[in-house]
Specification:
binds guanosine-5'-diphosphate, binds magnesium ion, Rossmann fold, alpha/beta, globular, 7 strands, 12 helices, 7-stranded parallel β-sheet
Amino acid sequence: MTPPDTAAEEAEAKALCQRALAHHTLSVSDLIAVFEDARDGAAARRRQVLRLLDADPGRRHGLICGVTGTPGSGKSTLLGRLALALADARPLSIAILAVDPSSPLSGGALLGDRVRVRFPPERPELYFRSQASETQLGGLAPDSFQVCRLLTRLYDLVFVETVGIGQSELDVRYLCDRMYLVLAPLGGDEVQLLKAGVMEVPDVVVVSKCDETLAARRLVSALASALPLSRPLGEPPPVLRTSARSGEGLAELAADVLATLDRVGPGGSQLAARELHFFRRWVRDEWGRAGERVLDAQPGGAHGFLYAAGDLDSAEQRFAALVPGALAQG
Ligand SMILES: Nc1nc2c(ncn2[C@@H]2O[C@H](COP(=O)(O)OP(=O)(O)O)[C@@H](O)[C@H]2O)c(=O)[nH]1
Ligand SMILES: [Mg+2]
């Protein structure tokens, strides 16, 4: 028999999970805190939460869409409008996880005017959360993947908004079923982006702020000539023109998301299959190349280690326990 305090704790966790599944905002935020918690004890709580959610018939199998682009390109504003359009089109629950670069010195936001999306309180099925990425400029925060493990169980659709160009984009690629690159006219960074090879990554290029008509037209025609060059072997990604201000293009963008939802089907994002990438990345973040070598030297390599541990949290715990000894030996 379980000791009474454990049983009480389990009942409490279960109630919290049920409130989160009903999209009670504070309960969702409480659970996110568990998935962002890097302390040792949090892994056991995460396992408990995942087990309770997976046993609940109300659990979702969310799809993950990535939305990336330079700071200020209008991603958050667009996502706020898009989420409302999607939820009007179909009875969907939608979470937006906006990973913002923050300055490690001030601990604050890099951008003064970054938009935090607020949904009306009578739309609890829509949720916005911003997460600071302190380790690098742009890309995913170390715990973005952990939070996605939670959010895909609570929502039908999860948008992950990230800043960053280049390598960090590849992490997002691993995480997402569909990726949108948002470019703003007047941004001045189009040429940079084309050079950096970022164009190889997105499934769709979104030109935002098309209410800036002249500049938007210039950007669209620059893209029309540059995109085919960026993918000499394949089809260039489609370009969608949008404006969060006028509403232009929102229906087309929503249609693309819904088509992805239909194509991927009720199973949603297969996050478990992507754990290997984020496990490796965690090892690299914590112990660098030396840690990766220790991991590769394990029986069956990284894959074998993760498989034997059973899940991401267990693998991280086991690896953290063995790595100091292995590093001292090597
Ligand atoms: N003209 C215009 N400005 C926009 C539009 N969407 C966003 N903005 C502005 O662009 C700035 C950056 O927006 P934000 O959504 O925070 O961009 P993010 O950093 O990519 O998330 C804000 O000042 C917005 O008001 C749009 O459709 N048209
Ligand atoms: Mg933003």
